[in-house]
TrEMBL record:
Keyword Cell wall biogenesis/degradation on entry: no
Keywords, in A-Z order: Membrane, Transmembrane, Transmembrane helix
Membrane topology note: Multi-pass membrane protein
Superkingdom of origin: Bacteria
Subcellular location, record wording: Membrane
TM segment ranges: 344-364, 376-393, 445-463, 492-512, 554-574, 606-634
Name listed for the protein in its UniProt record: Site-specific recombinase
Keyword DNA-binding listed: no
InterPro entries attached to this UniProt entry: Aquaporin-like (IPR023271), Site-sp_rcmbase (IPR011385)
Species name: Niastella soli
Length: 678
């Protein structure tokens, strides 16, 4: 009696009753489409079988002609009786003038979705693809199969569909005006080559051609065949617009980019792609280009499912900016990768100089700790001390082991860069590159540590000899050792904080370098009205050249110094366990603590644990920094690691056959390495 009745799908119900859908009954047609998509939609547990389910649905449609007719009628009923302009001009296209406004709009609509007009086609689309995961299986089916699906049901927009044609032309005019406006933005005009300057600016020319097309179709009531010549001209101009957008993008590697320029180019690309489709609809005599239509269908479904996704928006719009930041880091990262024994030992020598500078940084830090001042000012002077040390390492050409991962990760990711070549990456050569990164990192750690331990101890002894008492002693010295202990302190957790700060300082360095290139800072400095009369031209030129080549690294080093110097103070101010542990500084503090405690009072087993803690700190510094930098570099280059499932197997095979390559270089490199290096 209370048994739940089995739900019958409307598509199968009408088939059993041999009933047809009327093109005037928009509501029934919508219910039919909802039921049809529900037949096609896989369950979450069946996403892997989406292709099979799609094929079964298509077979079902072609098996019963009445289902095919009803489906075609239901689609045309929505297209003819709905307002298509919002779908053509808004869905899948960013319409806000700024990244901040678009971000705010999405955040607002997450809590209170925007109201939709029932006559709006997007309202119907959201009724049909109402699940937020629908875009996943729609994309999984693929553009080619959707194209064949639309072709199979006989979908066409021709001159016999004046309502659709008029809406397409109106949408074309709206997008044309928006493209023209964006084309006159400063970020675009300043980078437009001479050949496309007015009156040949394609963003302006396309608007004039769209106006002529609109006049012929809407005012003169002529068919698509009357605009063939204009359509061909407009198609060529739109291609020029796309070429100009790509040219500006290509030049960002040399000139840099900004979030504003990235966002403008992103919008232009979206609108130009949609205009090409609308032009195809407006001039279609029999059929539209189903390839473009299928792509728009997939894009619109994704956008409607993800229209309030902040992560999606940030991923799309900041991709090229992140790419430029990662690219600047990747260029610098190549200098940290050793290939030959000579480069390997040069790396160790460079790291030894870096270790020597850190010895003095650690001594000065403990001397500054003796000053009586407020916590904030202690953090400030610590930060200045660290910053000066890191800048000194950079300026002397020395190496700090923990600065490498943020740069080498970008260099490794560039080996998989899909934007630089159409050829698939050589995964074996990538494994060779990973081995080079590994041994280069080990070389820099060795160089830093073999100087920091004895060097700091020597400076502590000289201080004791000169002043008459150790720099640190007693409980303070024991505390320095305990702070590096792997399980008697939170040193390993704090090492992860340091890894994040190392990554963040690398991002800042790349961003500032990109900003200096994009803003033409060197040229603006040499033309500064005050500096030109204050400094000799040669000195001003040198200052501009220095800032142009070293500005990014200065910003990265200074920011890292303040991150490390202020972290412990922030923890004390807020009363939370928050601090940093940096391998070279921890090694120096271990040496100071060992001198202060004295070898006669030293528990060597405890000291061995502390040394292991220092090595663990170094490992986590590297792991966190490299992982974050590699993730950003991979995402910014549009690389999908799932596309290379065999890489880990190749890397493991290479490691088993050449394990020592990950620690030190071969005396004579293999042909593979020579080829890869070249």
């Amino acid at each position: 009696m209370f048994r739940k009745r089995k739900k019958v799908n409307l598509v199968k119900e009408l088939l059993q009753q041999d009933r047809s859908i009327s093109i005037r009954d928009r509501s029934a047609a919508l219910d039919y489409l909802v039921a049809f998509v529900d037949m096609m939609r896989p369950r979450l547990s069946e996403f892997e079988n989406v292709q099979k389910k799609f094929a079964e649905t298509i077979q079902f449609v072609h098996q019963y002609p009445s289902v095919l007719n009803n489906l075609r009628t239901a689609i045309m009923a929505q297209l003819i009786n709905s307002n298509l302009v919002p779908m053509f001009t808004e869905s899948g296209i960013t319409i806000s003038r700024g990244a901040g406004r678009e971000l705010f709009a999405r955040l607002k609509h997450k809590f209170l979705p925007a109201a939709r007009d029932p006559n709006d086609f997007l309202y119907l689309l959201n009724r049909i693809f109402f699940k937020q995961t629908d875009y996943e299986w729609v994309e999984k089916i693929g553009r080619d199969k959707w194209m064949r699906f639309f072709d199979g049901i006989g979908l066409s927009f021709s001159g016999s569909d004046p309502v659709i044609i008029k809406q397409a032309v109106l949408s074309l005019q709206i997008l044309s005006a928006r493209v023209a406006q964006l084309g006159w933005e400063k970020e675009i005009t300043h980078n437009t080559p001479e050949q496309w300057q007015p009156p040949n600016n394609p963003f302006a020319v396309q608007q004039h051609l769209v106006y002529q097309i609109k006049e012929r179709i809407l005012r003169e009531h002529q068919g698509p065949e009357s605009i063939q010549d204009l359509a061909r001209q407009l198609s060529g101009v739109l291609a020029e617009c796309e070429e100009l957008v790509q040219l500006i993008r290509d030049e960002t590697e040399e000139k840099g980019t900004s979030l504003s320029q990235t966002f403008t180019l992103f919008q232009l690309e979206q609108k130009l792609n949609r205009m090409t489709l609308l032009l195809d609809i407006a001039e279609a005599e029999e059929k539209i280009n189903l390839t473009r239509f299928a792509q728009m269908f997939i894009t619109v479904v994704r956008y409607e499912n993800r229209k309030n996704s902040i992560r999606e928006f940030l991923s799309q719009t900041t991709g090229y900016l992140a790419y430029q930041i990662a690219e600047h880091k990747g260029k610098k990262g190549s200098k940290y990768i050793t290939a030959s024994p000579l480069e390997y030992f040069q790396m160790i020598g460079s790291a030894m100089w870096g270790g020597l500078i850190i010895c003095f940084v650690a001594i000065f830090k403990n001397l500054l700790g003796m000053l009586h001042m407020a916590p904030f000012w202690h953090g400030f002077v610590y930060s200045v001390n660290y910053s000066l040390g890191f800048v000194a390492i950079e300026e002397t050409g020395a190496t700090l082991a923990t600065k490498q991962p943020a740069f080498t990760a970008s260099a490794v990711a560039s080996s998989l860069d899909a934007r630089k070549t159409d050829d698939p990456p050589n995964l074996y050569n990538l494994a060779v590159t990973v081995s080079k990164v590994s041994r280069s990192q080990i070389a820099s750690f060795i160089g830093n540590l073999i100087v920091v331990f004895p060097g700091t101890y020597l400076l502590a002894w000289l201080y004791d000899l000169a002043i008459g008492h150790p720099l640190v002693q007693g409980e303070k010295a024991a505390h320095l050792l305990q702070d590096q202990h792997p399980w008697q302190s939170l040193s390993l957790l704090y090492a992860c904080n340091t890894g994040f700060f190392l990554f963040l300082s690398g991002i800042i360095a790349g961003y500032v370098e990109n900003k200096i290139n994009y803003g033409r800072i060197d040229k603006r400095l040499t033309e500064h009205p005050v500096l030109r009369v204050s400094l000799p031209p040669s000195r001003l030129q040198k200052l501009a050249a220095y800032l142009n080549s070293h500005g990014g690294s200065l910003a990265g080093n200074i920011s890292l110094g303040f991150f490390l110097g202020m972290a412990g103070i922030v923890g004390k101010i807020f009363g939370i366990p928050f601090d940093i542990r940096h391998i070279t500084i921890s090694a120096a503090n271990t040496s100071l603590g060992a001198y202060g405690v004295g070898w006669e009072h030293m528990n060597y087993r405890y000291l061995a644990n502390v040394v292991m803690g220092v090595l663990g700190i170094g490992f986590l510094n590297f792991l966190v920094s490299f992982s974050l930098a590699f993730f950003v570099a991979v995402r910014s280059r549009d690389i999908h690691l799932k596309d290379y499932p065999g890489f880990l197997k190749i890397l493991w095979k290479y490691f088993r056959s050449h394990p020592l390559d990950f620690i030190r270089p071969r005396k004579r490199r293999s042909e593979t390495e020579k080829t890869e290096t070249a």
